[in-house]
């Protein structure tokens, strides 16, 4: 394969990955708590073509440094953007918005029989009956919302009203006049780029062999809970800027077309060379 075709096809493959990322961002422009991803490119491996050894009958035809030939462009990294999304008022009792970029709700997720703690910025919660006289706080997908003790938040079924108190405390008022306090489980992300995205605006910890979970996320406990900033009756919107994403998509499509045209031209040139007759 010619150098032109190699460069163009390598770059087209990486541009397609970038287009997939942009498409995923656009598809979630209205997803509550969604965080977009931004990609950067870098030059791929560069080959150094040095001059061959010369004898006394040959003349120097190339530069002393030879020729550096690149192999196209590739994605350097796809970075999670935790910029705060706009807060929208819903006036719903079980809607909660986080007003700090590095804070997450903790939820319990069961997959393939395995239970794990995962993290989300989507604060759309519901009360789901679990037996004759109790309800459990869950996400829109039905995952239990965890308390500060890393256990699901369970309340009596006769809950009349739930009010948010400072420090992420939920105060549930019952029909009989009693009140029950439950602390929302909260986590602070230390290394957001290590989190693994999961469906439903969830994020999971990486495998232990990749990173120590304690170096990625820290659970907010004790006096540190005074820094928790949650708004009740509001939701955090996606931080996707639709205009910027559409502009970026147009640029990537033009780059893809340019590289596809390069492959076409290289093929035509090879056809002309092969058709030459001595």
Describe this structure in words.
This protein has helices at residues 3-27, 213-216, 242-275; strands at 37-43, 47-49, 67-69, 73-80, 87-89, 96-98, 103-111, 114-120, 125-129, 134-139, 154-156, 159-165, 169-174, 179-183, 186-189, 196-198, 202-204, 217-219, 230-232, 234-236. Strand 12 and strand 13 form a beta hairpin. Helix content is 23%, strand content 34%. It is α+β, with helices and mostly antiparallel strands. It is elongated. The strands form 7 sheets. Strands 16-17-8-7-15-18 form a 6-stranded antiparallel beta sheet. Strands 9-10-11 form a 3-stranded antiparallel beta sheet, with no helix packed on it.
What's the SSE blueprint?
Elements: H1 3-27, E1 37-43, E2 47-49, E3 67-69, E4 73-80, E5 87-89, E6 96-98, E7 103-111, E8 114-120, E9 125-129, E10 134-139, E11 154-156, E12 159-165, E13 169-174, E14 179-183, E15 186-189, E16 196-198, E17 202-204, H2 213-216, E18 217-219, E19 230-232, E20 234-236, H3 242-275
Antiparallel strand pairs: 1-4, 2-3, 5-20, 6-19, 7-8, 7-15, 8-17, 9-10, 10-11, 12-13, 13-14, 15-18, 16-17
Helix pairs in contact: 1-3
Q: State the order of secondary-structure elements, H for helix, E for strand.
A: HEEEEEEEEEEEEEEEEEHEEEH
Helix share bin: 10-25%
Q: Strand fraction band?
A: 25-35%
Structure summary, number of beta strands: 20
- Please outline the major beta sheet: 6 strands, antiparallel
* Oligomeric nature of the chains: single chain
Q: Are there runs of 5+ residues with pLDDT below 50, and where? A: 56-60
Mean pLDDT: 84
Treating each run of at least 4 consecutive H or I residues as one helix, how many helices?
Answer: 3
**SSE-based structural type:** alpha+beta
Cα-atom radius of gyration: 28 Å
Distance between the termini: 23 Å
Strand order of the largest sheet: 16-17-8-7-15-18
What is the general shape? elongated
């Amino acid at each position: 394969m010619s150098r032109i075709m190699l460069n163009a096809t390598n770059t087209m493959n990486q541009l397609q990955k970038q287009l997939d990322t942009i498409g995923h961002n656009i598809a979630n422009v209205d997803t509550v708590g969604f965080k977009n991803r931004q990609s950067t490119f870098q030059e791929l491996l560069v080959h150094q073509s040095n001059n061959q050894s010369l004898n006394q009958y040959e003349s120097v035809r190339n530069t002393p440094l030879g020729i550096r030939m690149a192999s196209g462009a590739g994605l350097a990294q796809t970075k999670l953007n935790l910029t705060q999304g706009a807060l929208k008022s819903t006036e719903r009792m079980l809607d909660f918005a986080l007003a700090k970029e590095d804070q997450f709700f903790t939820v319990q997720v069961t997959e393939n029989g395995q239970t794990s703690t995962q993290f989300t910025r989507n604060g759309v919660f519901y009360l789901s009956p679990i037996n004759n006289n109790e309800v459990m706080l869950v996400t829109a997908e039905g995952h239990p919302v965890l308390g500060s003790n890393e256990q699901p938040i369970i309340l009596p079924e006769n809950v009349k009203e739930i009010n948010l108190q400072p420090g992420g405390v939920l105060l549930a008022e019952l029909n009989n006049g009693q009140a029950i306090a439950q602390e929302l489980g909260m986590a602070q992300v230390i290394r957001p780029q290590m989190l693994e995205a999961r469906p439903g605006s969830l994020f999971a910890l990486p495998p232990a062999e990749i990173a120590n979970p304690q170096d990625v996320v820290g659970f907010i406990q004790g006096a540190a809970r005074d820094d928790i900033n949650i708004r009740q009756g509001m939701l955090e919107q996606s931080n996707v800027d639709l205009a910027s994403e559409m502009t970026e998509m147009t640029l990537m499509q033009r780059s893809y077309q340019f590289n596809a045209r390069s492959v076409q031209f290289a093929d035509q040139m090879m056809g002309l060379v092969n058709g030459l007759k001595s």
